Amino acid sequence: MTEEQTKQGIKALELEFGEPTVRAAIEAVKRFTVEVPSWIFGRFGGGRFGEYMPPGAARTIAEKLDDAAVVQRLTGATDSVAMHILWDFSEDGRLGSYQAARRVHELAGERGLKIGSISPTYFLSGSYRNSLSADEKSTNDRYIEQTVLAARIAKDLGGSLLTLWLPDGSAYPGQIQLRRNYENMKNNLLKAREQIDDDVRILVEYKVFEPGTYSTTIPDWGSAYLLAKFLGKNAGVLVDLGHHFHGANIEQIVARLIAENMHCGFHFNTRYAADDDHAVEPNPEMSRIFYELVSGRVVANEKPENNWAYMIDQCSGRENRIHAVLHSIDSLQHCLARAMLVHQEELAGHQAKDEIILANRCFNRAIMHADVRPIVATARLERLLPIDPVSEYVAGKYQLKIETERR
Ligand code: PSV
Ligand code: MN
Fold first, then answer.
1. Which atom of ligand 1 is found nearest the CA of 45?
2. 119 CB near ligand 1 (under 6 Å)
3. Ligand 1 pocket, residue 66 CB under 6 Å
């Protein structure tokens, strides 16, 4: 899209949606920020192509931060990087280290970045018989300690935000005592919370299956909500797009959490089969989710403290990592712009008169049919950012540099 096409496009949108609405959408896109995960840039997971690394993928945390800094320069929307303590602050992959976190904090600062949310990492080694829900006290204690350390790092060196994903669960009926498994989780989470500063926010993530195939200790938003409530005021639910059964109405979950006044967060990604962790695509589901966030006033709010925590949780297998994360940011900005164009009063009018199809058409005029590329492009131009970060990256020399250096 050229600058001229952008101008023409804005005129057309103003004609259809009104100048103030289009301006509000541009401002919202300008304000939107999202964290990128450190793990997108380097080696991750295993599976069928376990050894494959796309050319130029980062090998160290310093290289991951180099890549994150490029993404921030191109988008201006991602100055914080989400970290995992056993991937990013550990010498041996078994224990987290405050000293290692300090070094990463320095490296991030040198690149104009911040450490964002921190995951205590309950999965890599040692949790094959579960972590905080395990029956063995020594296992519980190890992970309580790790949670408390992660919280100290989050408070001193990061954004005072902990994101908890626990891989706990079971593969066969009868393998574990389901009730005790939940009670262990609840009690051990509380033990950790009691040793953590009140101003560290804790988001509890849920996931319907994997690695547990028969049961997962925190399988759904309701379980995460109960645990967050139990932990107290500064806790919420973390919604990851890949963690539901197919067909789940995620926007309704979001609406409910907002209605309950819970300050929550998002792990954005796209999935087709299960927890694919693909790059975010600008699809209708994502736009409908953004509509709930926009109408609930928890995104792009002028008061940043009202906004939920937004993070990308993706880890591409085959594709270029930097293309993938830039694509995600681009998609999120387009979905936000569409959501901003929904005419909320007109929609309320149709709802009040029970005009079902007219309400649906009013909603879809923005969510499905609006071409919002000029809004996103204008937001970037007004911030002196590249009009299309992906093309800008492709035209630059960074990819060649990392492919040459990182062999
Ligand atoms: C688990 O599938 C998850 O969504 C959690 O958020 C982890 O932190 C992340 O993926 C990376 O493993
Ligand atoms: Mn996640």
1. 12
2. yes
3. no
How does DSSP assign 212-233, residue by residue? -SSEESS-SHHHHHHHHHHH-T
The tokens of 238 are what?
């973390």
pLDDT at residue 48 is higher than 80: no
Helix (H, G, I), strand (E, B) or coil at 363: helix
Task: List pLDDT tens digits, range 6-32.
Answer: 999 999 999 999 999 999 999 999 999
Q: How far apart are CA 63 and CA 344, in angstroms?
A: 45
CA of 58 to the centre of ligand 2 (A): 21
Is 88's C-beta closer than 6 angstroms to any atom of ligand 1? Answer: no
Among 21-25, 125-129, 159-163, 328-332, the minimum mean pLDDT is found in 125-129
Dump pLDDT digits (tens) for 103-143: 999 999 999 999 999 999 999 888 999 999 999 999 999 99
- How far apart CA 61 and CA 307 sit, in angstroms, is 28
Which atom from ligand 1 is nearest to the alpha carbon of 167?
1
Residue 267 CA, ligand 2 centroid: distance in Å? 5
Confidence class of residue 46 from pLDDT cuts 50, 70 and 90? low
Q: Whose CA is nearest to atom 6 of ligand 1?
A: 165
| Residues near 244 by beta carbon (within 8 Å), at least 6 away in sequence | 208, 220, 250
Give the pLDDT score at 43. 79
Q: Residue 207: which residues within 8 A CB-CB, separation 6 or more?
A: 165, 216, 218, 219, 240, 243, 275
Q: Cβ(130) to ligand 1 under 6 A?
A: no
Residue to substitute in 86, 117, 165, 239 for testing ligand 1 pocket (most ligand atoms within 8 angstroms of CB)? 165
Share of the chain above pLDDT 90, in %: 93
Q: State the pTM of this model.
A: 0.97
What residue owns the CA closest to ligand 1's atom 7? 165
